[in-house]
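Hi all, posting the design record for the shared folder.

TITLE: backbone redesign
STEP: 1 of 1
STRUCTURE INPUT:
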């Protein structure tokens, strides 16, 4: 992965890439405060090229969610436990 994170949801897409959704980690460059945040970032790993690529982020950050590829080829991520998210309403 391009950035370190924990608690990401993983699933294989119809294109053969492995997608990592969300997680808990640092955003942007390393921060001196050691601040961590719920991530909305999504990355895709290509086994053929052995590379990670940043793809479109999710609308909100998730941690410890599940991901599954449906028969339609789409990847579904959930649930998002917003009540556990810091500052959630």
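Okay, here is what came back for every position:
SEQUENCE:
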């Amino acid at each position: 992965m391009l950035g370190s994170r924990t608690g990401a949801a993983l699933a294989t897409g119809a294109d053969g890439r492995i997608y990592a959704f969300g997680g808990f980690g640092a955003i942007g460059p390393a921060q001196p405060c050691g601040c961590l945040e719920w991530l909305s970032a999504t990355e895709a790993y290509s086994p053929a090229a052995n590379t990670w690529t940043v793809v479109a982020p999710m609308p909100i950050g998730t941690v410890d969610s599940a991901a599954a590829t449906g028969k339609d080829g789409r990847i579904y991520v959930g649930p998002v436990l917003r009540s556990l998210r810091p500052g959630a309403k």
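COMMENT: The radius of gyration is 13 Å.
Let me know if anyone wants the other runs.
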